[in-house]
Amino acid sequence: MSRAEVFAHPLLRVATPAGWIEAALALPDVLLTDHANCEKKAASTALALMFAYAEDLELTGKMSRLAREELRHYEQVAKLIQSLGVTPQRLAPGRYAERMRRLVAKTEPRREVDLMICGAFIEARSCERFAALSPAIGAPLSDLFQGLHHAEARHYKVYLDLAGRAAKRAGVALQARVEEFAALEAELITSPDSVFRFHSGPPSSGSGG
Ligand SMILES: [Fe+2]
Ligand SMILES: [Fe+2]
Predict the structure, then answer these.
(1) Which of 27, 42, 59, 116 could pair with 163 as two cysteines, CB 3.0-4.6 Å apart?
(2) DSSP-based three-state secondary structure for 126
(3) What does the pLDDT read at residue 5?
(4) How far is the CA of 205 from the centre of ligand 1 (A)?
(5) Which residues surround ligand 1, an ion (CB under 5 A)?
(6) Is the entire prediction scored with pTM above 0.85?
């Protein structure tokens, strides 16, 4: 049975397409370099949320721990990049996070709900991709991805809890909003993408990475 047939996730609607896994196995340098960027971005997003919601000590405490953990992930990936002799390079981000962010409300209190939902999806997709890649990619990446998969599963739940809390305070129907993000997320994961990145869709024909 294929992964897609058995796929069931509390948040994500679709499994990573086989075409993306193939591209990841063919482009390990880009995969690792963009993965390192994702860890930095995850830490930086958590810090930004600490400034945006500075009066909320529960949120700032959770985001502080998250930022530290994401930076430790960055250091693990950076170490591997160095030991594997991957040439450091600057990579522009893909479409995924930017397109998800476009759906985020511009004004409070809906903005906080959306930012937390958005964080939950990004973490959940990372978690799903680590699990999908781990058995296919071989050592030493498989061990790293196996460990990170568990961390990202915790992270998406942290964001989802914060989303639920913010939604309750704001009088927003959480599930309906989650569904809107889920639909966009599934579209970004399954539609052809001209650039290969950690959160990209399957490569469009002719995209060389
Ligand atoms: Fe991480
Ligand atoms: Fe994370």
Answers:
(1) 116
(2) helix
(3) 54
(4) 30
(5) 39, 70, 73
(6) yes
